[in-house]
Amino acid sequence: MTVTLRIAVGLLACGLLSAAPPTCVTGTLASYIALGADGCTFDGNVFANFTYSATVTGGAMAIKPDQILVTPSLIAPETTVFKFSAPWSVARDQTEDSFIHYTIVLPCGDTRTAQKELMLGTAHVGSIIGSVTVTETTNVGKLSVYDRCTEVCQSKTVDSFNFNPVSVVLVTDHVSLSGGTGGVSLDEYSALVNLCYLCP
Description:
Blueprint: H1 3-13, E1 27-28, H2 29-34, E2 40-42, E3 45-57, E4 69-76, E5 79-90, E6 95-105, E7 114-120, E8 123-125, E9 129-138, E10 142-150, E11 152-156, E12 158-163, E13 168-178, E14 184-194
């Protein structure tokens, strides 16, 4: 994303450009990618610049962007959740990595402490070795949730951090499946942004 594009999207969120993006609605990731730099708006935030890539090994089938359903929702005032659902699954000795990139332009002039949160959906590890991991890397912090077994199984389904206000959050979500000895799967994960974390 170029500096010019960041400024343009930021101005749009501040109401300094005439055109307003459409409201974010449930749709495939392919439909969100088609929105381009204009993106869509939800609860005062602009979500834009969606891109996607995937890699596989061992004969696994790569998840395509039209297989990923994006569902925005408002679970509390100023708390937006984007749920990404897909039939992520690999068999024994296979791997699959999905990368979803996008930007979030936050409301201008907000000085409150905000929160980013990542939640793992239903994951299944079929044997004593295998892993499902979702990592979210941003310019304000990093989150990771997982269900993994290396003879001993570990699970972390929620991760979060607080951050000082910024104009643009640059997001990369990495869904990583390692089939291990019995295959693994994941049905969804959710990414949350709360602009009023410390509000009374």
